Amino acid sequence: MQPVNLKKHKKNFQQNKRKLRHFITRTENNPPQNLELLSKKKNKEVWAEINCISCANCCKGMSPTYTFGDIKRIASHLGMRPKDFKEKWLYRDKKENDWMNKSRPCQFLNLKTNKCTIYEVRPADCAGFPHLVKTPITDYMHVHKQNIEYCPATLLFVEKIYEAMQH
Ligand code: SF4
Ligand code: SF4
């Protein structure tokens, strides 16, 4: 398995974003019958090619959303009060009303190893990311549309589905 090349990913995203985002919208509005089966197959292929430890771009460039359950669990793991945890690291996003990281990269990312230092108690959003085979898949299309910019696995997933649907 090759390490993720983020420069190559960025270039690939720039070259194909319009085509792929249009494709995602079209598929969202008019999903083919075999979409879930195809997604499962392509998801497997993606993870045979992508190694997240060589990437960690989601933890570097994006913020997870924290539920109250996440905040309670992580604060307790760190021996903090939820209130202090929020004050130190989070802010409330006005638009979506979500708790998010104040800074990027995420404060819990070890930048030397690319590993999460709170892995066992990480937010549910992180544990499920990049949500490639969540169902109904059409509910996650808008997420993929955004994430192809940051996540090489999502970009590869959408490219593979695009290619498969051209035949
Ligand atoms: S909590 Fe862990 S998995 Fe989630 S963004 Fe931060 S470093 Fe990454
Ligand atoms: S989920 Fe995507 S962005 Fe995050 S480490 Fe894996 S490939 Fe990179």
What does this structure look like?
The protein has helices at residues 6-29, 35-49, 57-61, 68-77, 82-89, 124-128, 141-147, 152-164, and strands at 65-66, 90-92, 99-101, 109-110, 115-116. A 3-stranded antiparallel sheet has the order 1-3-2. A two-stranded antiparallel sheet has the order 4-5. Strand 2 (90-92) and strand 3 (99-101) form a beta hairpin. The chain is globular. The mean pLDDT is 96. It has 167 residues and is mainly alpha-helical. The chain folds into 2 domains: 8-27 and 36-59 and 130-164, no CATH class; 65-128, no CATH class. Helix content is 52%, strand content 7%. The protein has 8 helices and 5 strands. The protein starts with 5 loop residues before the first helix and ends with a helix. Residues 59, 64, 106, 108-109, 116, 118, 122-123, 126 line the site of one iron/sulfur cluster (SF4). One iron/sulfur cluster binds at residues 50, 52, 55-58, 129-130, 150-153.
